[in-house]
Design a protein that fits this description.
Length: 285
């Protein structure tokens, strides 16, 4: 046994020696400026967007438009999409990103091994990983769960500052991915009401019930190619018309107008009723 005496820090005068003290946070990383309405890294953005709802246009803007993340926010952007080389709207992504048209656990392992190879985390690249239309269409090695499912809860540890997963069918998305999503985009027009109802069934608890969630969705998507954007990192969670206008706050609905805007014509001039949302809106101006 060691002869060293264990030195206990003396409690401050008058302090309770058994009080649980918080663990100090590590120094905050210096991140590049980013519009506050966008998913703040590290984030898992789940896109549920059927065909012909403008999904590729949204992804292009997120990754190429300097008003969003743009081409300089991440050290590397990796796109895995079965249509990346034959979709005309993706031709600019091909030039700006590392692109693959087939997903495999081996490819994902290679990406993660590269990220794990940095002993000095300050030198590790910040990356965006885009998994477009690959969820639910593959199986793991030897029948095991695909690595992509486990990645949803561990992506932060690999320097993945944006993990974007897209799928046309919500129920094909693993519960692990759904529960770890920090943000969601639900495209429009949504051609399958039953499928939209499945989303409302699961997300309704956070937004005043299934019916109220559907009202929020329709209020947020009055025009073709609009989308409902959910920020699930805030308390209460937020619902947005595109990335532009806050239209609802989550939580239990207390009245018919607590969570949903009465009219979305002229978005900027309309606010959800209630002092809490008005305070939130004023902070965003």
């Amino acid at each position: 046994m060691s002869d060293k005496k264990r030195i206990e820090p003396l409690p401050k005068k008058g302090a309770n020696p058994l009080k649980i003290l918080p663990v100090k946070d590590p120094p905050k990383e210096q991140r590049k400026p980013l519009h506050p309405n966008l998913p703040q890294p590290p984030s898992l953005l789940l896109m549920i967007s059927p065909i012909r709802t403008g999904k590729s246009t949204v992804i292009n803007n997120l990754l190429l438009n300097s008003n969003f993340f743009g081409q300089d926010y991440f050290d590397d952007t990796i796109v895995i999409s079965p249509t990346i080389f034959n979709d005309k709207t993706s031709r600019f992504l091909q030039k700006a990103c590392s692109c693959y048209d087939e997903y495999s656990d081996e490819l994902l392992e290679q990406i993660l091994d590269d990220q794990k190879s940095y002993d000095d985390l300050s030198m590790r690249p910040s990356i965006a990983l885009i998994l477009d239309d690959v969820i639910g269409v593959f199986k793991g090695k030897q029948g095991r769960e695909p690595m992509i499912n486990g990645l949803a809860s561990r992506f932060r540890h690999y320097g993945i500052d944006l993990l974007l997963m897209s799928c046309q069918n919500y129920r094909k998305v693993s519960p692990v991915i759904r529960s770890n999503s920090t943000h969601m985009i639900i495209g429009s027009p949504f051609p399958n009401n039953r499928e939209l109802g499945k989303i409302a069934e699961e997300m309704g608890d956070q937004f005043g019930g299934e019916d109220n969630f559907l009202k929020i969705y329709h209020k947020a998507t009055p025009e073709k190619y609009d989308f409902l954007y959910l920020n699930l990192t805030t308390n209460p969670p937020e619902a947005w018309h595109n990335f532009e206008t806050l239209v609802a706050l989550g939580g239990q609905k207390e009245s018919s107008e607590d969570a949903v805007l009465g009219d979305l014509s002229g978005h900027e001039s309309n606010k959800v009723s209630g002092p809490e949302l008005e305070k939130k809106q004023s902070k965003l101006k």
